[in-house]
Amino acid sequence: MNHLFDLIGNTPLVDLSSLVDRPGIKLYGKLEGQNPGGSVKDRAAFSMVQGALSAGRLAGGKRIVEATSGNTGIAMAMIAAALHIPITIIMPENSTEERVKTMKAYGADVILTPADRTIEYSRELAQEMEDSGDYVQLNQFANDDNWKAHYRTTGPEVWRDTNGQLTHFVSSMGTTGTITGTGKYLHEQSDRVKIVGVQPTDGSSIPGIRRWSPEFVPAIYDEKQVDLKIDVSEEESVAMMHRLAKECGVFAGVSSGGATAASLKLAETLDAALIVCIICDRGDRYLSTL
């Protein structure tokens, strides 16, 4: 019988090639919604909590505080509940109702910050709370245990499950842990593999996909691990989210729609390729916005 944490990772690939009108292109989505907390963030959250525990940072009943746009908060709340660690999550008030309620269901305290100040203000508030001495911030944006989780797990899984035939890996860029860690591992396996980051077009607001102002670029981000960046709009991401559900039976979130849309743009430039994109969570977290 498995412990909850044993169920994190080893998520399946699903064939999405029917979306691509090019016979030489194979497209697969890595279904991270199959993680017990429902997203790719389970990997990083577990790694960061374990790192903090090993370092003794959570001794004496210290409370975790973390800024998030949603999925990391849910993952941390789940893990904190299983380990009986108190936790406070800070997120913009325009986060979906489903995300807020899920965190609270796990027992987390949730602080909502003004939407117009974006997650950048949520990050500032989390830092202020840690500076008060009463909280421990795991800080997914600057914590090496974030990207290392993907170096240890996501990258090896993608390489293994494509039998080393992978040519392109596509991931939305938010905290950048997924693309940095997975990209580092895949680059070490073959110079042939290209790592593609997905960013929002100017003016687009896409949960899980960010274009950070210079002072807020995540400290864990390693530019060397990204070979190409593709911009997608909010409209393209939402439309592809619907296509994934209606044409492929894959009900995923908006950032997954963005990553898939970027993969199709990439495919238009190639004659032959095996592309894997991250389907980072499940679409049931966005029902109130549909």
Roughly how much helix do the residues carry, as a percent range? 25-40%
Strand content: 15-25%
State the major sheet.
6 strands, mixed
Helix and strand run = EEHEHEHEHEHEHEEHHE
> According to CATH, what is the topology of the largest domain?
Rossmann fold
User: Taking all residues together, what is the mean pLDDT?
Assistant: 95
Strand order of the largest sheet: 1-2-10-7-8-9
Can you describe this structure in just a few lines?
By secondary structure, the protein is of the alpha/beta class.
What does this structure look like?
The model has no long low-confidence stretch (mean pLDDT 95). A six-stranded mixed beta sheet has the order 1-2-10-7-8-9. The protein has a four-stranded parallel beta sheet with strand order 5-4-3-6, sandwiched between helices. The chain folds into two domains: 4-34 and 153-279, Rossmann fold (3-Layer(aba) Sandwich), CATH 3.40.50.1100; 41-137, Rossmann fold (3-Layer(aba) Sandwich), CATH 3.40.50.1100. Helix 2 packs parallel to helix 3 (97-105), helix 5 (144-161) packs across helix 6 and helix 7 packs across helix 8 (254-267). Helices cover 38% and strands 18% of the residues. With 290 residues, it is an alpha/beta fold. It has eight helices and ten strands. Keywords: Amino-acid biosynthesis, Cysteine biosynthesis, Pyridoxal phosphate, Transferase. Pathway: Amino-acid biosynthesis; L-cysteine biosynthesis; L-cysteine from L-serine: step 2/2. Residues 5-281 form the Tryptophan synthase beta chain-like PALP domain. One of its GO terms (molecular function) is cysteine synthase activity. InterPro entries: Cys_synth, Cys_Synth/Cystath_Beta-Synth, P-phosphate_BS, TrpB-like_PALP, TrpB-like_PALP_sf.
